[in-house]
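Researcher: Here's a chain I'd like modeled. Treat it as a single chain, no partners, no ligands.
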Amino acid sequence: MLTDIEIAQSTKLRPIDEIAKQAGIDEKYLEMYGNYKAKVKLGLFDELRDRPKGKLIYVTAITPTPAGEGKTCTAIGLTQGLGKLDKDVMVCLREPSLGPTFGIKGGAAGGGYSQVLPMEDINLHFTGDIHAVTAAHNLLAAMIENHITKGNELGIDPTRILWKRVMDISDRQLRNIVVGLGGKANGTPLESGFDISVASEVMAILCLATDITNLKERLSRILVAYTYDGKPVYAGQLKAVGAMAVLLKDAILPNLVQTLEGQPAFVHGGPFANIAHGNNSIIATRLGLRLADYVVTEGGFAADLGAEKFFDIVTRVTDLKPDVAVLVATVRALKFHGGVARDNLNQENLEALKKGIANLDQHIDNLRNCFGLPVVVAINRFPSDTEAELELLMEHCRSLGVNAALSEVVARGGEGGIQLAEAVLKALEEENSFTHAYPLNISIREKIEMLAKKVYRADGVAYTSRASRSINSLEELGYGDLPVCVAKTQMSFSDDPTLKGAPRGWTLNIRDVRVSAGAGFIVVLTGEMLTMPGLPKNPAAENIDILEDGTILGLF
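Model: Modeled as a single isolated chain. C-alpha cells:
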C-alpha cells in the first residue's frame, strides 16, 4: 500500500484559481502562493455578507489513544463523500505545527485517500502564518525588555513579566531559561522561557479575530506584566500593536487549498486543543459558510477539548453555531480504553470493546445532553476490525438512538465516505437545541467546576494556593466574566493521562490560572500540562529527508 506522501505526490492537483472559481471566489480576491495555494482577501466577506449561511458540520472524536482515531482524515473524507453526493461543500482545518510534524505525529493533512493538498507544503511552513505569529509574539517580548532597559517609564517589575517567547519546534530545554546575561549592555537578567508558537496568545487572537481592526484591539489587550505596585501592563501601553499587526497582515488571510478529490479547503490557524482553544480561524469558517451549502470543520483532540472550546469560547464571539456533531471512534481505540495493550489491538476482543465503549458513551452524552446537538458516530474502519466487533459497536449506537456509519475514507476516499455523508445529512434534519456548558455570569471557580463535573465527570476540583490567588486577582481585575480554556491532557477525560475509559471518583487538580485578555478567555492549567512539548525518543524528524530533485521523503 502506498504511504500518505506517495499518494499525495502521485495526485494531479488542479490549479488553485480553478478551485477558487469552483468555490465562487473571484480571482481579484486571490493572493497566489504558487500554483496550488492562495490566500483570500477579506474583502470577499463584504461581498458575500447577505448570502445565506450554509450548515456547519463539526467533527470531533473520542479520547485519543496510540491506536489513532483519524479525525482529520474523517473530516476531509466526509467532505469528499458529500462531494460524491453532488453537495456544495468546503472543509476548514487548522494548520499543522512543525512541533508535531518533526515530533510524534508526523503531519496533519489527513491520510491515505483522504488528504488536503499540497501535503508537503501544508505540513512544512505552508504560507508562513505560524512564523508570522512567532515573529509578532517575540517582537512584543523584545519591546517589553527594551522598555525596561531604556528607563522603564511604566515601572514594570522584571520579576512579574508574563510574556515569554515562542518557537514552532518542540524543545524541552527552552521551557525555563535565564535571559539578559553578560552585563548591562545585554539587558536585564531575568527568568523567562519558551512556549510552542501555536500556544501563543497571538495565535489564539489570530483565530478569534474577525478583521484587522478587531485583531489590533485584541492585541492591545494582551496582559504582559505587572508594575512594581501591582498594576497590569498591556501590549497597547508598549506601543507594539501596530508593528505586530503589520507582521500578521498576511497571516490573517485564510489559505485556500484543495482536497485530494478537488473540493475547496481553507487551512488557517493552528492552536492546539490541549493547551489552547484548538480550532481554526473564525474568518475562514465564516467565509466558508457564505461560499458553500455545507462546511465541515474539526477541533483538536477529543470532544472534551477542541469541541468544548469551540462551543464555549468560539461561538460566544461570533455568529458560528454547529448544526451537527460527528464523533469519530475506532474499534481499536475503544479496545485500548477497555484495557487491551497496544500490541494486541489487532485481535478480536468483544469484552474489552464493551468495556471501552464507556468512553464513547460519555462523549455522546456530553454532545447530546450538555451541548444539545444531534450526533453521528463515524466508525473509522481499520483492516483488523472484525465483523462481530463492528456490529457490536453499530448495535450499541442504535440502542442509544444515535446515527452511526462506517467510514472507509482512508482506503477509499470519497466513496468510502458516502455512508457517513448520508448519515450526516439525515442528522441535519434533527432538532438542534445547541447551548453552552456554563453561563458567563458566574465566577471563574463555578465555571471550572461546572466543566469538571458536567463534561469530565470529576467529583470536584482542587486548587493550589497559587491558582486560588490567581483567580482572586483576575476577578479583581474584571476578568471574571470570561469563558475558561482548560489546558488538560488529551489522553484522558481526567487530568491523569493513565486513566482511560470514563474515569470516576477523581478530582481535577488546578495548578495555575492565567488570563489571555486579548483572546478573551481564562487559561486553566491542570495536572502536569506543559505549553512547550518535548521530542519523543524516536522523533519523526529522523525519517524525513529530501532528494536531489526536491522530492520529500518520510513526512508521513
